[in-house]
Automatic annotation (TrEMBL):
<dbReference type="GO" id="GO:0046872">
    <property type="term" value="F:metal ion binding"/>
</dbReference>
<feature type="transmembrane region" description="Helical">
    <location>
        <begin position="38"/>
        <end position="57"/>
    </location>
</feature>
<keyword id="KW-0408">Iron</keyword>
<feature type="transmembrane region" description="Helical">
    <location>
        <begin position="6"/>
        <end position="31"/>
    </location>
</feature>
<keyword id="KW-0812">Transmembrane</keyword>
<feature type="transmembrane region" description="Helical">
    <location>
        <begin position="63"/>
        <end position="83"/>
    </location>
</feature>
<keyword id="KW-0472">Membrane</keyword>
<dbReference type="InterPro" id="IPR017896">
    <property type="entry name" value="4Fe4S_Fe-S-bd"/>
</dbReference>
<keyword id="KW-0479">Metal-binding</keyword>
<feature type="domain" description="4Fe-4S ferredoxin-type">
    <location>
        <begin position="338"/>
        <end position="367"/>
    </location>
</feature>
<dbReference type="InterPro" id="IPR017900">
    <property type="entry name" value="4Fe4S_Fe_S_CS"/>
</dbReference>
<dbReference type="GO" id="GO:0051536">
    <property type="term" value="F:iron-sulfur cluster binding"/>
</dbReference>
<keyword id="KW-0411">Iron-sulfur</keyword>
<protein>
    <recommendedName>
        <fullName>4Fe-4S ferredoxin-type domain-containing protein</fullName>
    </recommendedName>
</protein>
<keyword id="KW-1133">Transmembrane helix</keyword>
<dbReference type="Pfam" id="PF12838">
    <property type="entry name" value="Fer4_7"/>
</dbReference>
Length: 454
């Protein structure tokens, strides 16, 4: 009996220490993230939770053993209860091609009174009324915008200036002598080198018409039909810094977006040139010079799913990434993309981005049929109107998404739970709301960015 008592005591102690360490670790992570509310709540738990156990211990160790057994059983059940697998939350393939002239960046570039302007709105009179709203606002990176910050805006413009200079390098002469390289060797090299250049994840896909825009919507080739020259693509993600994103929609978000457009552009240009050096046609798709719809290419390359906010949701950094794509005629693997229904199911429940969106551009509804396919679609006109008022690319949705939390053991464990347990997916949203808030406030910008307007 004595040895049973000792064994039970040891088990209780081990379980109690494990729970305590988990809460301590959670508190430290929240504190490092500078999340005051989450830290306060975790620390409160740290001190309050042991109380009933200690009181019970005072009366009888059997009660403590019972309580801890119930905790362990509940934890086990969260992952073991078989719920029906979610399926067909969104449809997979767009029914038609998107015209780049319809995207907000292209419409923003139309100069009032120009031929392009007149022609576009003659064909799309309904869009002129909507676009007049953003034209009344100060505009992106302008002095009169709400979040104007002279240093951050100047830095953002510097990054956009640099990426603009890559546009002469997105394509070029192909070496007439083509090197014979096996697909196996090429994919190992491309994956490793792209990561070494700064990418997080790399994938490959075969291209279909729906990956390409139907017509150019920006620059000198405005209105030209886009021909599907390449049949394969390399897609990759680059991470956006969590601290810069957390302050969205303040100016650090646009600094970070511009920086990562530049990073993605640099990597894409290098890969494109590398393939052309070896005798394979290749084109880099970079900010302001896209012929493909990057989120669709990246999704089909297996890098994530397109979530409620219309961005690619990656398994580890969520939407807190920028994308790069290189198209080529080198025959790459066309592995069938495996739909991540768990992630889409979580998106279906969460709706946090819809709750925080300052312009109410994100729907709270489940995916529904738009142009013949079941999906989510944000209201890009109201979103862009807010950007034009804010002066930044907002990013409040990205900053608040539970999937955007930093890549560490705590958040990776939660993302693992979301991926593997339907019941945990139900718990994860209220848990995130409890610690971070349903509508988390924007964090402060990093200290080194002066908070000044003049
Ligand atoms: S905030 Fe929630 S609903 Fe929105 S994209 Fe992220 S996971 Fe999906
Ligand atoms: S970027 Fe801002 S305005 Fe646009 S959908 Fe996200 S939260 Fe809403």
């Amino acid at each position: 009996m004595d040895s049973l008592y000792t064994f039970a005591i040891l088990i209780c102690l081990a379980a109690a220490i494990l729970f305590f360490i988990t809460l301590l670790y959670t508190s430290i992570i929240f504190w490092k993230e500078k999340e005051k509310r989450a830290t306060f709540r975790a620390v409160t738990f740290l001190f309050v939770l042991p109380v009933p156990y200690l009181l019970s211990w005072y009366y009888s160790w059997e009660i403590v053993a019972l309580l801890l057994s119930i905790d362990l059983l509940l934890t086990f059940l969260v992952f073991a209860i078989p719920f029906p697998r979610p399926k067909n939350i969104c449809d997979d393939f767009p029914a038609s091609q998107i015209d780049e002239r319809d995207i907000m960046f292209a419409r923003n570039e139309l100069k009032v009174g120009s031929n392009r302007y007149d022609e576009y709105y003659q064909n799309n009179p309904d869009k002129e009324i909507l676009d007049n709203k953003f034209r009344k606002e100060p505009g992106l990176l302008t002095k009169k915008s709400v979040f104007y910050n002279r240093m951050a805006y100047a830095a953002s413009n510097a990054s956009f200036f640099a990426v603009d200079h890559f546009k002469t390098a997105i394509d070029g002469e192909v070496n007439p002598i083509q090197e014979a390289i096996s697909q196996e060797k090429m994919i190992v090299f491309l994956k490793s080198w792209t990561k070494k250049l700064g990418a997080l994840q790399v994938g490959f896909t075969k291209l279909s018409d729906y990956h390409y825009y139907s017509h150019k919507g920006r620059g000198d080739q405005y209105g030209e039909q886009i021909k599907n020259h390449h049949s394969y693509a390399i897609a990759f993600t680059v991470e956006m810094n969590q601290e810069m994103v957390a302050a969205a929609p303040k100016a650090s978000i646009v600094m970070e977006s511009a920086q990562q457009y530049l990073e993605a552009g640099r990597i894409a240009v290098q890969i494109g040139q590398f393939l052309r050096n070896l005798g394979y046609s290749a084109k880099a798709h970079i900010d302001g010079n896209y012929e493909v719809i990057c989120p669709l290419v990246a999704r089909d390359a297996g890098l994530g799913e397109i979530g409620r906010m219309g961005l690619l949701m990656t398994p580890k950094e969520g939407p807190r990434v920028r994308l790069g794509v290189v198209t080529t005629d080198f025959v790459l693997p066309s592995k069938q993309w495996k739909k991540n229904n768990s992630l889409l199911d979580f998106c279906n429940r969460c709706k946090k981005c819809a709750a925080v969106c300052p312009s109410k551009s994100i729907s709270f509804d489940p995916p529904h049929r738009i142009d013949g396919i079941k999906r989510w679609q944000i209201n890009s006109e109201s979103c862009f109107t807010y950007w034009s008022k804010a002066g930044t690319d907002c990013g409040r949705c990205m900053a608040s998404c539970p999937y955007s939390h930093p890549n560490n053991f705590l958040h990776n464990s939660i993302r693992w739970g979301i991926q593997h347990s339907p019941l945990f997916r139900r718990i994860a949203v209220p848990l995130d709301d409890f610690f971070y808030g349903r509508k988390p406030k924007a964090a402060k910008m990093p200290n080194w960015i002066p908070n000044e307007k003049l």
